[in-house]
Structure formats: C-alpha cells, structure tokens
C-alpha cells in the first residue's frame, strides 16, 4: 500500500483535488470522506487532477461514480 498525496484548493466555487500516488481500496475511503466534507460545506463541483496518479483500482472508480 503506497501513500496517496491529496492537495485541495478552491477556484471559482470548484474544488480542485490534486491526487498523486496509488489510489486503492485502502485509501479511496479517505477521498470519499474528503469530498463528503466539501459537500457538507456547500461545494458541488469537483475537478480531480489524476496526472500524478500511478495506479487506481475499481474501488476508486466506484468512489468517483458515487460523486457524479
């Protein structure tokens, strides 16, 4: 299990989430909780930057679909 780096910023009411490393069943719940927290704060639009992601599994894809 590799560590995932997550950086977030707010640009014009969009939350940009920069991800780096491996996204898998062990850390995709962290991403889900993060996005849930932003939704609770009233944010509705997310941009996921996957440029530095080296691996993602089906649990991560499921997390992405959950927030469509």
Give an overview of the whole structure.
The protein has 68 residues and is α+β, with helices and mostly antiparallel strands. It has one domain: Transcription Regulator spoIIAA, CATH 3.30.750.24. It has helices spanning 28-40, 58-66, and strands at residues 4-11, 14-23, 45-56. Strand 2 (14-23), helix 1 (28-40) and strand 3 (45-56) form a beta-alpha-beta unit. The longest helix is centred in the middle third of the chain and has 13 residues, at 28-40. It is globular, with a radius of gyration of 11 Å. The protein starts with a strand and ends with a helix. The model has no long low-confidence stretch (mean pLDDT 94).
CATH domain class = Alpha Beta
Going across the major beta sheet, what is the strand order? Answer: 1-2-3
Number of strands: 3
Helix residue percentage? 25-40%
Structural class: alpha+beta
CATH topology descriptor: Transcription Regulator spoIIAA
Estimated radius of gyration: 11 Å
Whole-number mean pLDDT: 94
Order of helices and strands: EEHEH
Query: Can you count the helices?
Result: 2
Sheet having the most strands: 3 strands, mixed
How far is it from the N-terminal to the C-terminal residue, by CA?
Answer: 27 Å
In the CATH hierarchy, the architecture is 2-Layer Sandwich
The coarse overall form would be globular
The CATH homologous superfamily name equals: STAS domain
- Number of domain units: 1
Low-confidence stretches: none
Strand content: 35-45%
């Amino acid at each position: 299990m590799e560590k995932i780096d997550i950086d977030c910023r707010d640009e014009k009411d969009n939350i940009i989430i920069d991800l780096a490393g491996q996204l898998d069943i062990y850390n995709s719940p962290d991403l889900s909780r993060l996005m849930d927290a932003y939704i609770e704060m009233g944010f509705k639009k997310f941009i996921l930057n996957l440029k530095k992601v080296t691996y993602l599994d089906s649990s991560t894809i499921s997390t992405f679909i959950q927030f469509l």
